[in-house]
Here is the input.
Amino acid sequence: MRVFQTTFPVRYYETDKMAVVHHSNYIRYFENARSQMMLDLGLPVEKMEDKYGVFCPIVSVTCHFKRVARMGDTLTATAEIVRPPLAKLIVRQTVVNQDGELCAEGEVVLGFIDRNTFRPVRCPEELYELFTDKS
Here is the structure.
């Protein structure tokens, strides 16, 4: 599957008194990479919701911290769809620093729910094709 990425500097407000990125920001970095993934696929999240009538709430998040990121670092967050989505979308995520050193890795599981009924549904077929296109 394709890997999507976004690169950005560590911002002051993301750090603690030791100039180390606070652990909660890695979940935001994961979100940034997934948002970039949707943009790269030509379907920003808000358009996906309108076009296919589904929301994709997060079911679970895991994050394993490997190395601290600090003020002054430039980070790259990645998102990779692990397998074709059926009732859920599993995204493998990483954050690396400018030297290619792994700072954090994890996995985010998203579900699909009907935007009107809020009931779980399978991934819409057109969306499935978009997620599984290997181009």
The longest strand covers residues 102-111. The chain has a mean pLDDT of 94. The chain has one domain: 3-132.
